[in-house]
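Notebook entry, structure prediction.
Reason for the run: the old model in the group folder had no record of what sequence produced it. Starting over properly, with the input documented here first.
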Amino acid sequence: MTDVQVTVNGVPTEIDQTATVAVLVTALGGAHRRVAVAVNCEVVPRSRWETTALAPGDSIEVLAPTAGG
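New structure, fully documented this time:
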C-alpha cells in the first residue's frame, strides 16, 4: 500500500492512502469518544468517521476537550 502525506494538527504526516478518519484517530491513540475531528476546516460527524476517506494534502485537526474556566 502506498502512503500519502497529510497534515495532522500542523504536522506533516504519512498515512496509508486508504485511511479513513476512524483509522487515523485509532492510529493516533485517540479515544473515539473524547475527540472531535475536522478535515479541511469542516467538522466530520462521528457517524461519518468510518466512511470519510482522507486524501493527499488534507489538513486534519484532532481536538480533545480541555477542562478549565
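Summary: Residues 21-27 form the longest helix (7 residues).
The old model has been moved to the deprecated folder.
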